[in-house]
Fold each of these.
Amino acid sequence: MHTIRISCSPDADDLFMVRALLEGQLDTGGYRFEIGTSPTDALNQIAAGRDAPEVIALSIAHLPAVAERYLLLPHGGSLGEGYGPVVVAPRPATIDDLRGSRIGIPGLTTTAWLVLRLILGEASDTEPVVIPIEPYSRIFEALRDGTIDHGLVIHEGRLTYAREGMHAVVELGAWWATATSGLPLPLGGNAIRRDLGPVVIAEVSALLRASIAHALEHREEAIAWLLARGSALDTPELVSEYLGMYANARTLDYGPEGRRGVEVLFERATAAGLIPPVGPIDWAP
């Protein structure tokens, strides 16, 4: 029995993707899956560590840093189709107000922070303040007590900021769609270790894809399972809305537009001097 460790976030879309493996709902042949969860920024650090898992969910922005070790899987991506992370504030504000302010961010290695830097430009003297995304309410508390001026929210906070009394300043996915003539914004993806070899990579990739397909085919069951686990998304409607955004047909396969979105993100970030030059992207089968 070949053990495959999967590290992903505890968020609804990631758990949705691996539910069939967690619950033993697929015939996995000679593979046994061990699944652990960590926040997004922590996953990026884990991917660069000594005992990195065989499969990991990471920020697309962090892929270049670990590309020698990992291949990007063609499924498991979270892509924003005109939507994505949102910068919020306790009162109405504009993009110009962000410059020179303290912005709470989910981590320095996240795609959300990379895209916000693209929006603000090199000349911005914005001060990033890392606010852990667990519990999700922490960034809203920091906004209310004045620790930060603005907050960059992802995951659950992206859907709950209005009920926390916050105002949207800029929607990163909408900005990206305008800037790229409609390309989806690649936020997170699943990657697999290169040293597993071509046979294991192909077989594990097929099982991971089957787990995503199973979740999509049993969506209502998966929503009930997620609600039973508990999160800020505490109604079937909120969970369904979130999954509709980040666990959908694009998750089963990036498609040409999704793959191009990854390429353009790296091209623009490289041109802006935010990441080192990136060669061709190696995709797993």
Amino acid sequence: MSGFGFELLTTDGRARSGRISTAHGVIETPAFMPVGTAAAVKAMTPDAVAETGAQVILGNTYHLMLRPGAERVQRLGGLHRFMNWPGPILTDSGGFQVMSLAELRTVSEAGVTFRSHIDGALFELTPERSIEIQDILGADIVMAFDECTPWPADEATAAKSMRLSMAWAERSRAAFAGRAGSGLFGIVQGSVYDDLRRESAETLVEMGFDGYAVGGLAVGEGQETTFRVLDTCLPLLPDDRPRYLMGVGKPADLIGAVARGIDMFDCVLPTRSGRTGQAFTRRGAVNLRNARHAEDPRPVDSACACPACRDYGRAYLHHLVRSGEILGSMLLTWHNLTYYQDLMAAMRDAIAGATFDAFAAAFAQQQAQGDIEPL
């Protein structure tokens, strides 16, 4: 079993390419993590996820503790064996889901008491219990337990929330046993307030984590504000640790964040969009529900090698989507995840070749051209 570590390979401006080593394999960065919240990437088999180029996926403490239960997963051999994913797994701490999904929650310095959104059963989630669950699951990357700051929030509310998260981060750090090949990430909070973001980043760095995430963004503040927050806090984080922007985002968001020094991402957008008929392409997003695709035999994206683009035309995909066929969700999810992984690989190549700015400009120009004209 290998140790956990991060190697910075190349920089181009503030953009970085690197390599994260874990107990279950290597993650080449910049990396995008498909979301497998409840031990499954929706509409995909693990083999299919791997074929898109994904090296790491995300699972979630909140969902897995409620169903099927962390201890049950442990008895069945751990999360990797349970879901048949041999590669690295990052587990979100559950803080966001407690705030967004749980009923009748009560937040205190100790943690959060809440009722399950599934059956109303009462649970308590503390920093110590969150870390314990993630360890029981066998996560390669464990996230500190934090509070999801509401949006919008005034500065006083954001400050109180951030400082609670910092107290929980310290307790998470103390509870983390450091299993071989696993690492613990702290999460920078502070909403849209630069002083709070700086305070949070400096506090976490002083504690010392294996990696650092930036949380509480992409919740409605807009891309310009997201990038400003990254410009504020990323220079305060150590160069020799991976940096993870949580819950982001659209392709242009990924490129802008990589340009500022982010190494890792997760987002439900490519999978959720695939299930609703939207495909991401090199010329922008395409809605396969639209009637203009009904007799179009061309692929969604001629430059894509995924099964949806290789084997089927837009007309057939349009038919599947409009008919509510599960195959449509499967094929478009496969396509979107492939597109995202191709984008990350292209960014890694551009950073290695010191051409990232040119790559970003060419991407923006191609996206601005819009989709191919209807037949």
Amino acid sequence: MKLLLFSDVHRNRDYCEQIVAKSVEVDVVVGAGDFGSFRTGIVKTISWLKKISTPTVLVPGNAESFEELQSASVQWPSAIALHGSSVELKDTIFFGIGGGVPITPFGSWSYDFSEEEAEELLMDCPMGSVLVSHSPPYGMLDCSSHGKHLGSTAVRKTVEDKSPKLVVCGHIHESGGKMLRFGDTMVINAGPNGIIYQVID
């Protein structure tokens, strides 16, 4: 199964049009959050992306809520928004969790969750799935420009316990477009340019 992975387009039309163009080459598109900026622009961004007819999985970033993403995606029939939930596409289960984890320093506009809340949301993540998380696992593609790890311990524990075949994340822009392997799991911080990745069963 061939996937197109992206995150953190932040209202940028050029990025969105690149994603739309690449989407015809793949089986499933995965958007790992931050479609808008500061809780604005989500409807406009989705209006550009909804030209994608390929089945698409989305999770909210910290720049939009799950409810805002669901509402904006109503007119995008090929897309489904996930948050503490899953969907099966092409015989593969995709499980999603959105928002900033742990809570960011950005203030009240940011859609954030504590590690404890994230653990609850991740409880039903199945073994061997594709995990789509806006926040990266702690210690994996999560370093700020100052070298500080900003990822989620709850997401990391899920990777350790559930061995997803793939983790798609974003949030930490400095690691956008990078990937690493952790045991049997490939972790990809997708970034806004879009990465085509072949999942091997």
Amino acid sequence: MSSRTVQPGLSFEYIMWIFTRISGLSLILLSAIGLASAFALGARTQVDLPTLVRWTFFPNPNHVINSNIPDVTLGWANAFWQVMQILIVFFAVTHGFNGLRVIIEDYIGQSIAKPFIRGFIFLLWGFSLVVAIYVVIFS
């Protein structure tokens, strides 16, 4: 029978465990803010459900351009919504890639490939963030 001792201090795994909880809650909060704002800016009567979902998670004027809402860009094309989109993308991508990292590391165990897989996941994470932020800013 082996006894396991808990080491005090912050480890990478503990920080990512905390981040996963915080990012999950922040995604719920950001989506609630997006949904409430979509309703406040006219989505409750003038768009269908798929458009409302796109509007909630990616409040981009291009998503509602075919709606009956007059001058869509006034309400949505500003820095606040770009920051909202970037936060949603950051939390979602980081949350997802951390989950992928945990699952892969559970299956490979202690292997020589572990640092390479971590590096590859980190590169994919960085590339995904750069592309997503580019799309948010320049769309």
